[in-house]
Amino acid sequence: MNHSVDFYVLKDTGVEAGALLACRLAEKAYSHHKTVYIYCAENKIAVDLDKLLWTFKEESFIPHASATAATAADAPIVIGCDTTALNRDYDILINLHPEINPHWQKFSRILDIVANEPLSKELGRQRYKYYREANCQLSLHEL
Which partner from 24, 54, 105, 113 sits 20 to 30 angstroms from 17, CA to CA? Predict the structure, then answer.
């Protein structure tokens, strides 16, 4: 499988910038009938993102579930921070985690969000280098 990895490097330093971008990317994927796993660094981020997906856009409805919910098996968008929750196939991985998902090869497309702060950028560069060495098709978007 040829893997495509898009890096989104944020210029905004706001705390919610990455979460809002994840919502927009999930909305776009859902409109194209794609399934998505949003990989978060910790449970609090996953819970906050779950709430934000309900409210970020008044006219939008994005069906989603927590990876630990009983409805996760049927939800097109699943949010979690545990890689053991990847017991089904998804089209897209939205990465909000500082590390590479150990199951990244299960996804045909990865959308990696890099926050505008020094540690996040350094970890993003390390992920970029890893994917480049894995012969993934890379794209960089500065937002």
Answer: 105
Backbone angles phi, psi at 117, to 5 degrees: -155, 150
Residues 129 and 131: their CA atoms lie apart, in Å, by 6
Residue of 24, 2, 1, 3 whose CA lies nearest to 12:
24
State pLDDT tens for residues 79-126.
999 876 677 889 999 999 999 999 999 999 999 999 999 999 999 999
CB 76 within 8 Å of CB 31: no
Domains of the chain by start residue, with CATH: 4-142 (3.40.50.10110)
Find out whether 38 and 50 touch, Cβ atoms under 8 Å: no
Say what the pTM is.
0.94
Say how far apart CA 95 and CA 5 lie, in whole Å: 10
